[in-house]
């Protein structure tokens, strides 16, 4: 898939409880970091990758997100309304499948973002790295992964170990592992038998591991997650550092 997926799912329906009191009045995807809403960091990356349609799911204070994305011109945004009940990561995708189509698509978390590496020969934007690495014959899911040294605001352990061919297994806390960096390409065929209701993507990660069809690509640049209000300043400092590295 040299040109990359043209559709994407943006997971934006979470409650953002740890971001209170900011999220008492706005949904977490609209929290601003370095002058840009978290949601826009992801949507801008998708637009730069050539994505034409992004499905954004909403639940908490959904009207604010609907109004916000209405001001965007690219990508075209389709709202998937989960105001009647949260469906978790995979359940939200299953609900949105009619708008996502039958071809592989990107998944992006709305509450994390990244700064692509720039300035070195061969550097490519991270979504382009995913598209270039995608191989439907071998993969059901391809994850973007970050090293602990690339992460700002991450308080957990690692998620996956990756072998020389890019195949993944659970890291089980191994400090030599990598973090799932909130972006992926997925083949929608894996959801063919899914029933409506809450479902976690972790179930599908584990099924793909068992089948030998979960792969990863280590990202370039910096990965940033903002879990609490006091993490915003750290995130903005990380953005400033990352952009300074890429400046001419």
Amount of helix: 25-40%
Structural class: alpha/beta
Average pLDDT rating: 91
CATH superfamily: Spore Coat Polysaccharide Biosynthesis Protein SpsA, Chain A
The low-confidence runs, each spanning 5 or more residues with pLDDT under 50, are: none
* Spatial gap, N to C terminus: 31 Å
Report the C-alpha radius of gyration, rounded. 17 Å
Series of H and E elements: EEEHEHEHEEHEEEEEHEEH
Order of strands, main sheet, comes to 5-4-1-6-12-8-13
> What characteristic shape results from the CA principal axes?
globular
CATH topology: Spore Coat Polysaccharide Biosynthesis Protein SpsA, Chain A
**What is the oligomeric state here?**
single chain
Largest sheet: 7 strands, mixed
- Number of structural units classed as domains: 1
What is the level-2 CATH architecture name?
Alpha-Beta Complex
Beta-strand content bin: 15-25%
Overall description:
- The protein is α/β, with parallel strands linked by helices and 248 residues long.
- It has one domain: Spore Coat Polysaccharide Biosynthesis Protein SpsA, Chain A, CATH 3.90.550.10.
- Helix content is 27%, strand content 25%.
- The strands form four sheets. It has a seven-stranded mixed β-sheet, with helices on both faces. The protein has a three-stranded mixed β-sheet with strand order 7-14-9.
- The longest helix has 16 residues, at 231-246.
- The protein is globular and about 45 Å long.
- It starts with 6 loop residues before the first strand and ends with a helix.
- The mean pLDDT is 91.
């Amino acid at each position: 898939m040299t040109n990359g997926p043209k559709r994407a799912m943006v997971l934006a329906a979470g409650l953002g409880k740890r971001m209170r009191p900011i999220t008492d009045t706005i949904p977490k995807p609209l929290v601003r970091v370095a002058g840009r809403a978290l949601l826009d960091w992801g949507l801008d990356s998708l637009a730069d990758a050539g994505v034409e349609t992004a499905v954004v799911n909403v639940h908490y204070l959904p009207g604010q997100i609907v109004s916000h994305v209405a001001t965007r011109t690219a990508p075209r945004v389709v709202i998937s309304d989960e105001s009647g009940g949260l469906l978790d990561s995979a359940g939200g995708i299953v609900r949105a499948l009619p708008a996502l189509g039958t071809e592989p698509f990107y998944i992006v978390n709305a509450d994390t973002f990244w700064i692509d590496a720039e300035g070195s020969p061969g550097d490519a934007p991270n979504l382009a790295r995913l598209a270039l690495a995608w191989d439907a014959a071998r993969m059901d899911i391809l994850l973007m992964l970050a090293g602990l040294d690339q992460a700002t605001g991450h308080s957990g352990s690692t998620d996956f170990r990756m072998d020389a061919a890019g195949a993944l297994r659970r890291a089980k806390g191994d400090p030599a592992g990598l973090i799932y960096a909130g972006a992926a390409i997925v083949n929608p065929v894996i959801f063919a038998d899914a029933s409506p209701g809450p479902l976690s993507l972790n179930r599908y990660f584990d099924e793909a591991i068992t089948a030998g069809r979960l792969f990863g690509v280590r990202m370039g640049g910096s990965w940033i997650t903002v879990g609490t209000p006091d993490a915003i300043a750290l995130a903005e400092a990380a953005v400033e550092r990352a952009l300074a590295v890429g400046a001419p």
